[in-house]
Design a protein that fits this description.
Elements: H1 3-14, E1 18-22, E2 37-41, H2 53-59, E3 65-70, H3 76-88, E4 90-98, H4 123-133, E5 137-142, E6 148-153, H5 167-178, E7 180-181, H6 183-189
Parallel strand pairs: 1-2, 1-3, 3-4, 5-7
Antiparallel strand pairs: 4-6, 5-6
Helix pairs in contact: 3-4
This protein binds S-adenosylmethionine (SAM).
S-adenosylmethionine is lined by residues 3, 21-26, 28-29, 41-44, 52-53, 71-73.
Amino acid sequence: MERSAIIKHLIRMYGFESYLEIGVRGRETLGQIELPVVDGVDPNGQGNFTMTSDEFFESHCSRSYDVIFIDGLHLHEQVLKDIENSLTHLNDGGIIVMHDCLPEEEWHQLREGVSGKPWNGDVWKAYADLRATRADLTMYVIDTDWGCGVIKRGSQTTYQRPEEWTWDHFQQHRDELMNVVTVEEFLGYSQP
Ligand SMILES: C[S@@+](CC[C@H](N)C(=O)[O-])C[C@H]1O[C@@H](n2cnc3c(N)ncnc32)[C@H](O)[C@@H]1O
């Protein structure tokens, strides 16, 4: 199941009407979303806001959204800011989806990508930060398409944070740390 199918499933299930995508390249996902409000932010164009997500949230975002898809700059600190800003601009009952939460190999999650190869960056560490600190959120990652994280307001038992987020820790504790669910589980419990 691809990220776009997950987002479209959530839109159908919850009757969402507004969508924001951070990082739009190619419009592969954004181009499939048909809603009254579809906004895209990308400094390299292809969205209707040609700027970084920081600039967008700081001075151009004048509304909140039902679904926000985070797929911009794949670096820990930037993704953390994108999640925090998205939470501020999320409607009640809204959902954040974030791509690239489950790197398969260590090199996929390095802070610099290998040209022409899949790059997840250290997105997982931003997600993990919130798993360890935010008891007021419900979070899980669907094990498909490089790991699609889902975040909404709710509750969770926070994860015991280690001294440092390391690749070894991720590998050994991936399922619990990231709260990984299968596509079937996701389809089963994302009923309204
Ligand atoms: C992996 S691509 C997005 C792919 C697209 N979301 C999809 O589903 O196919 C990442 C995009 O993030 C954009 N980007 C990089 N830095 C950004 C930033 N600070 N804010 C927003 N977008 C950024 C890049 O220009 C690139 O187009």
